[in-house]
Amino acid sequence: MKWSNALFLAVNLLCGGRLTLEAQAPREGFVTTADSVRLYYRAFGRGPDTIVVLHGGPGMTMDYLVPDLAPLRARHTLIAYDQRGSGKSVAPLDSAHISLSNHLADLELLRRRLGISRLTILGHSWGGKLAAIYAARHSNVVARLILLDPGAPRPEPSFGPRLLAWADSAERVQIAQLRQAAHDSPGVPSCRAFWREYIRGYWADPADSIGLTRMQGDICAYPTAIRDMDAVGQFTLRSVGAADYSQDVRAVRVPVLIVAGRNSPMPWENAETWAAAFPDARLLVVDRSGHLPHVEQPSLVFDAIETFLKGQWPVAARKVERRVP
Questions:
Q1: What is the DSSP string of 96-161?
Q2: What's phi and psi for 52, nearest 5 deg?
Q3: CATH number for position 131
Q4: pLDDT digits (tens, 9 = 90+) for 283-292
Q5: How many domains does the chain have?
Q6: Is-above-0.85 flag for pTM?
Q7: What are phi and psi of 320, to 5 degrees?
C-alpha cells in the first residue's frame, strides 16, 4: 500500500471508521458488463450517504431525472447511470442485449464495482418497478426503497390512453407525426418538438403551460433519444411480460416509501398494490400531481423523502393493508 493511501485510511478510521463512496469512487465513469456493454454512471452531490437513482422509460436517461432531484443532491450523494441502450450506455438494440435480466444484472454489477454493501434506491416510473424487482431478488443488499410514481406491478393498459386523454383527434394526429419525425430524423430539435406536446399528459393539468419550464431535466439530451427509447422500451417490456411482480416482494422486509401522483396517467391504485405487497411500506398520494410529483409538488415530496431517510415515516404516508382474496 502506498504511504498516501495508508495515511488516508488512518485518517478516515480516526474520523469514525467509515469510508464513504465519495472517498472511493470517481465522480463519473464506465462499468463494463459481461456482454461488453459499457454502463455510464455519474455521482452528484457530496453527502455522507449514497442513493442509487434509477431513471424511467424504459429507454430514457438520467438526464431527465437527476436535475430535478437537486434538493437531495444538496444533502446526499446520488449515483445515477444510463440504463443499457440509452444515452452514454450504448448497446446493441436487440433482444439479446436489452432485457429485464440484463437490467437487473447491470444494477448488481454497478453495486459491486462501486463497493456499496447495501443499496438505498430511488426509482422513478419504470425505474421504480425495476427497483422493486431487484429488491425481490437481492433483498440482502437493499437497505430501503423510494418509489416515485412507480410502474405498475403488472401491465397497465390504461397508461397509454390516459397520457393522450387530453388531446382531441387532430392533436393526436399531430403528436403521432411529431413522434415519427423524431424517430425517422433523429435530432434534439425534433425530439423536443415531440415532447413539448406529448409531455402534457404527464402533468396533473395538461393545460399547465409552465409545467415544462419548471422541469429542469432534459428528455432530449442526445439526438437519438426517441429511437433508443422506442427500441429499449419494446425489448425490455417484452421480456418483463405479463407477470404480477407485486407477488414477488412479500419477502422484502426493508422500509419502502411509495409516492404517487393523484392525477398521474399511471393510476395511483397501482402504487397502492405495491404498498400492500411490501411488508414494511407506506404510500403517499400527492394531490395536484401527475407522473412527476417531485417536479409538480417538490416541497411536499422532498420533505417526505428526507423524513423517510432519517428513519421516520412522513405523517401523510399511510399503511395499505394487503387484501385477502
A1: TTSSHHHHHHHHHHHHHHTT-SSEEEEEETHHHHHHHHHHHH-GGGEEEEEEESPPPSS--TTHHH
A2: -90, 130
A3: 3.40.50.1820
A4: 999 999 999 9
A5: 1
A6: yes
A7: -110, 120
